[in-house]
Amino acid sequence: MPLTVIVACCLLLAGCTGGIGVFEDDADDTAVDVDAIEANADTVESYHVEVERTLRSGMVNETTTIDGPVDVTDRQAHLTMTTETHVGADPRTTETEQYVLADERYTTDGDEFDRTDDGNWEETHRLASATDSLENASFEPIRTETVDGVETTMYELNVSDEHESELAGIDDSGHVGTTLEEFVAYVLVDTETDTLYGTDVRMQVSQGGEPAVVTVETTFTDYDGVEVSVPDELSSDDE
Question: Given 2.40.40, 2.40.30, 1.10.10, 2.50.20, which CATH number is that of 21-63+126-238?
């Protein structure tokens, strides 16, 4: 079996690296209450988000992390984005810091902040989009996993083909079509408190005949326990 196929199969399986508790068949299977999870998320004032996105293809290997606090009440976020790209034998790492104030984005790589109006609060508030993805889905319990000191249950998310494409972010707007070959999604839920602690989306895609494996792991922690401190220079710009 080609190495790329082996890697793809491994990445598409949650917990390929092991070390996390296996879900017991005789354990109490509390159904996922999507309405309660959405209602709970609507009351959240702030949280910490961590996203890790990986791209593995024959041409490039890339890992991007996004990390920082999100203030839902004031619609603000302070995020650090780090991208490590391997093309051939020359790895490259870039890091940017950004503040999102509603739909305005301020970005810096260490010098002055650049202000743009391309910020999208709906994209920044990942908890809201994650809970929306649970609509019309069925859930298969996989295992238990501790997140932020809380024992959660990992569920495989079963959705329609159309919903899969939406979650994968695939549309027909590009000049070169992207085909979704394989797709699997997991969620981490504390069913006792109806709290979503994470999502894990893994897919194999093909664009222009070139295969690639993409994974996106998102973790939500520190509910109502973080603040966003905006620099004075940005606060004055926003006034």
Answer: 2.50.20
pLDDT band at residue 16, thresholds of 50, 70 and 90?
Answer: very low
pLDDT at 5: 44
Mean pLDDT of the chain: 85
Longest dimension (CA), the chain: 60
> Which residues have C-beta within 8 Å of that of residue 159, sequence separation ≥ 6?
133, 136, 137, 167, 185
Contacts of 43 (CB under 8 A, 6+ apart): none
CA 126, CA 132: separation in Å to the nearest integer? 10
pTM of the predicted model, to two decimals? Answer: 0.85
Tokens of 39: 């209602």
Residue ranges per structural domain of the chain: 21-63+126-238
d(CA 196, CA 187): 8
Check residue 49 and give left, alpha or beta (phi > 0: left; psi -120 to 50: alpha).
beta
| Residue 207 vs residue 136, higher pLDDT | 136
Between CA 154 and CA 144 the distance in angstroms is 6
